[in-house]
């Protein structure tokens, strides 16, 4: 009788221990799932945030048209922007503009990628009409700004540090 009771108690205790073990595992499981959920939420948040144009408020799920611009210096041309798309290094387009004219289509999402390839000076790029401001970039730093070309017309992009670094942006 005594033995039977003991073995009964033993079983009960074992089951209790198993219950505790089980509860402990599932709590860890919740923590892991919670952690994964937070990581996903952050990823979605920052992912979506990068899809919001600087002159817009909601994300745009479209591939932007890319324009790559370099800030350069050479003794011949001085400080200029150059663009692969527009070609021409420091071409003078007249009217005090020493940088290539860039064209975009109205309504399109555009990403401007600026890289500073001038080892001696910082540069920045601004298009006030579309709230594009890269901030100052040091040698070989780059910055991408995405905006919607939501107005037609001729605008200017420029560097605040070098007044001669100026080009036209034509949106048709
Ligand atoms: Cu500059």
Report on this structure.
The protein has 172 residues and is of the alpha/beta class. It has two domains: 1-50; 65-171, Cupredoxins -  blue copper proteins (Immunoglobulin-like, Sandwich), CATH 2.60.40. It has one helix spanning 2-50; strands spanning 65-74, 78-83, 102-104, 109-116, 126-127, 132-133, 142-148, 153-158, 166-171. The strands form three sheets. It has a four-stranded mixed sheet with strand order 2-1-4-7, with no helix packed on it. It has a three-stranded mixed sheet with strand order 3-9-8, with no helix packed on it. The longest helix has 49 residues, at 2-50. The structure holds copper (II) ion.
Strand content: 25-35%
Q: How many strands appear in the DSSP assignment?
A: 9
How many structural domains in the coordinates?
Answer: 2
CATH superfamily heading of the largest domain: Cupredoxins -  blue copper proteins
For this structure, the CATH topology of the largest domain is Immunoglobulin-like
